[in-house]
Amino acid sequence: MTAAKKTSAKRNTTGRTAPAEAADAETASAEAAGGKTASGRADGVKGGTGRAPKPESRTALVRRARRINRELAEVYPYAHPELDFENPFQLLVATVLSAQTTDLRVNQTTPGLFARYPTPEDLAVANPEEVEEILRPCGFFRAKTRSVIGLSKALVEKFGGEVPGRLEDLVELPGVGRKTAFVVLGNAYGRPGITVDTHFQRLVRRWRWTEETDPEKIEAAVGALFPKSDWTMLSHHVIWHGRRICHARKPACGACPIAPLCPAYGEGETDPEKAKKLLKYEKGGFPGQRLKPPQAYLDAGGIPAPPLGAA
User: Fold this and answer.
1) Is 84 among the residues known to form the active site?
2) What is the rounded CA–CA span in Å between residue 296 and residue 289?
3) Cβ neighbours for 35, distance < 8 A, ≥ 6 positions apart
4) What is the dihedral of CA 270, 275, 281, 286, to 10 degrees?
């Protein structure tokens, strides 16, 4: 069963989505899409109202955005950061290493790194050439070696070997920007933050939550649509959806659980069977990106990623 059919069946069983609410959501999506509904109808054509499409109001945008998040929470109830880590230091280093590569590649590389250098004190005095050799599979290994050794030295010298829990301190570390800082704050310390990675940027613009292109402006615009308490899990939901269904080049529109709410419906494959073949990771029969995922992910049918060198 596709993600779209599964979610639809769940709503029909529980009765949570009333027809009027569904119609309102589709209308809001239609307004944002220039009068075209997710089912392909358009105002002024057979079945339409004949009125010119209206711009989406702020209230309608907030309602649509929050409903998308609720729908994605049902599809990905086990959403989590897809970097393996056991403590804030490991998450910080792994996030820095994830630039310009996949979380899977990082997860296949960090076990060897942390086995040899388990603490900031160890990595701060490491031989750069030895670290480079470990990090070679992650790409840009020389620059990343400088970053992880540099941030380790800063942690030892300025913070007693502990990863700070404040944004203003984290962004002062070598190789650490706001995106990395919010990953650490949200997932290691439970402090809300929005992680604006490439998937997040693409989807929130595709959904017309914002037209901003600067990450900090996107962060502010999207953050204003949701309660602060939702920010961390919202980031996971959006990123997971971007990795699995709403791809950059060919989104799997026909298998998308939020199609009626999406103003960009139709940019990708709309045939359900063809769209199903585009699904990635566990929803397409493939493993996720973590070697050691949370138990909730495994209980839901997720599959651990293969270790480095596995077929």
Assistant:
1) no
2) 15
3) 42, 43, 44, 48, 52, 53
4) 170
Burial label for 114, CB within 10 Å (0-12, 13-18, 19+), is buried
Is the distance from CB of 206 to CB of 192 less than 8 angstroms? no
Distance from C-alpha of 261 to C-alpha of 229, rounded to nearest angstrom:
23
Q: At what angle do helices 231-244 and 198-206 cross, to 10 degrees?
A: 90
- DSSP letters for 71-140: HHHHH-TT---SS--SSHHHHHHHHHHTTTS-HHHHHHHHHHHHHH--SHHHHHT--HHHHHHHHGGGSS
Residue 168, φ and ψ in degrees, nearest 5 = -65, -30
For residues 166 and 158, give the distance between their C-alpha atoms in angstroms, rounded to a whole number.
Answer: 13
CA distance 187 to 193: 9
CB of 237 closer than 8 Å to CB of 79: yes
Q: How far is Cα 304 from Cα 292, in angstroms, rounded to an integer?
A: 6
List 103, 197, 276, 283, catalytic entry: 197
Catalytic hit among 179, 230, 276, 283: 179
| CA atoms lying within 13 Å on the CB side of residue 178 | 13
Walk along the chain (311 residues) in steps of 10 and give the mean pLDDT of each run. Answer: 43 34 41 39 32 78 98 94 96 96 94 97 98 95 96 97 97 94 96 96 97 97 98 97 96 97 96 95 85 91 82 48
Closest CA to 165 of 143, 181, 148: 181
| Measured distance CA(47)–CA(49) in Å, rounded | 7
Query: Half-sphere exposure of residue 248, counting CA atoms within 13 Å on the CB side?
Result: 7
Q: Active site includes 228?
A: no
Please give the pLDDT value at position 274: 97
Report which of 175, 172, 215, 209 is spatially closest to residue 195, judged by C-alpha positions: 215
Query: What's the pLDDT score for residue 310?
Result: 65
